[in-house]
């Protein structure tokens, strides 16, 4: 009788815990202070609570992280003068096992992206001004770079800041050269060739940093670090046509600020961007037909220097990595208006990348 009662209690406890909707959140950091590498939280997708903090991999300056499409592997840049890229296997307990590390072929790599088939990676080297392409083996290991694009020119210094694959295209945001480069995959499916050094005309010294595209590839939104704007463009006759440049800041803001990250909501009705200095997340309502934006909110991030941010898998929460105040802020997303409301924050040294 006692054994049966214990079994019932344990089963009830298990069902209670198993019913809690959790998602893993991996956090990339700078390790010049107290941080030691990549951390992991459990995120409750009903309450927005972050719990069970763990150091899952000791590695230097993992400032940007990316999943493989099957989510069995994580890839991290090591943002140093002698830049490198590291591959990790995700263990069943969520810890990361180091697979290998290769040269990034440029100083201070700051972004990595994986293609949809999981066999190719692209790394942006900020100080080096280079963009490196890698083959990925079926066991998750990275090969040495098979192609390195040097964006530097005699009269201008490149600062490659982010890159993404989209079907047979590769787009590269170059903050230093003030353009969004467009590469086309070659017929042999191995190389990429430059089509144009800027898909649209940017304003002078705008500083394109990160960008996001609609799922159908018809609209692109570029956040500009120096100009504190979002540049939007629409696909027309196989090329992009400029729509508008829209400020990310409050109309009455007078201080210095530098944009960082940008994301579309899951339904693509809203666009979010981070302002470092004003220390806000800007919220835009998006017209899905025209692609144009209406600024509806600048939400205080409850921290300092919001570098990277992420929407959780449910789309109901937005989390912000505040680099200088050493905290991650959690916001509730209103599904109807797109606006944010602050819930709480947790402390973590130098968080700069959030990966769900």
From TrEMBL:
One of its GO terms (molecular function) is 6-phosphogluconolactonase activity. InterPro entries: Cycloisomerase_2 (IPR050282), Haem_d1_sf (IPR011048), Lactonase_7-beta_prop (IPR019405), WD40/YVTN_repeat-like_dom_sf (IPR015943). GO terms for biological process: glucose metabolic process. SUPFAM superfamilies: C-terminal (heme d1) domain of cytochrome cd1-nitrite reductase. GO terms for cellular component: cytosol. Residues 1-19 form the signal peptide. Keywords: Carbohydrate metabolism, Glucose metabolism, Signal. It holds the Pfam family Lactonase. Belongs to the cycloisomerase 2 family. This is Lactonase family protein. It comes from Snuella sedimenti.
């Amino acid at each position: 009788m006692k054994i049966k009662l214990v079994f019932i209690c344990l089963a009830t406890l298990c069902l209670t815990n198993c019913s809690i909707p959790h998602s893993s959140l991996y956090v990339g950091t700078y390790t010049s202070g107290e941080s030691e590498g990549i951390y992991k939280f459990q995120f409750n997708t009903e309450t927005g609570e972050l719990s069970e903090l763990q150091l899952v991999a000791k590695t230097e300056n993992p400032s940007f992280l990316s999943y493989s499409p099957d989510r069995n592997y994580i890839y991290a840049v090591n943002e140093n003068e002698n830049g490198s890229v590291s591959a990790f296997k995700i263990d069943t307990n969520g810890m990361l096992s180091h697979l290998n590390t290769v040269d990034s072929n440029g100083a201070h790599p700051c972004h990595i992206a994986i293609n949809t088939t999981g066999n190719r990676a692209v790394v942006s080297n900020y100080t080096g001004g280079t963009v490196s392409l890698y083959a990925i083996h079926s066991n998750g290991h990275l090969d040495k770079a098979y192609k390195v694009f040097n964006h530097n020119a005699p009269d201008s210094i490149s600062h490659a800041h982010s890159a993404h694959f989209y079907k047979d295209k590769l787009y590269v945001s170059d903050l230093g050269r003030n353009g969004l480069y467009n590469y086309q995959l070659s017929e042999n499916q191995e190389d990429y060739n430059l089509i144009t050094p800027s898909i649209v005309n940017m304003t002078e010294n705008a500083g394109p940093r990160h960008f996001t595209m609609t799922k159908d590839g018809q609209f692109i939104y570029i956040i500009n670090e120096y100009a504190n704007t979002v540049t939007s463009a629409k696909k027309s006759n196989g090329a992009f046509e400029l729509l508008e440049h829209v400020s990310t800041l409050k109309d009455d803001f007078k201080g210095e600020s530098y944009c960082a990250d940008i994301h579309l909501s899951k339904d693509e009705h809203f666009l979010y961007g981070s302002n470092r200095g004003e220390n806000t997340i800007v919220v835009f309502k998006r017209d899905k037909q025209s692609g144009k934006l209406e600024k509806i909110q600048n939400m205080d991030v409850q921290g300092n220097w919001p570098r990277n941010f992420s929407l959780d898998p449910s789309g109901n929460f937005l989390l912000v990595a505040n680099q200088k105040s050493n905290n991650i802020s959690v916001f509730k997303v209103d599904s109807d208006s797109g606006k944010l409301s602050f819930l709480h924050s947790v402390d973590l040294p130098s968080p700069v990348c959030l990966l769900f």
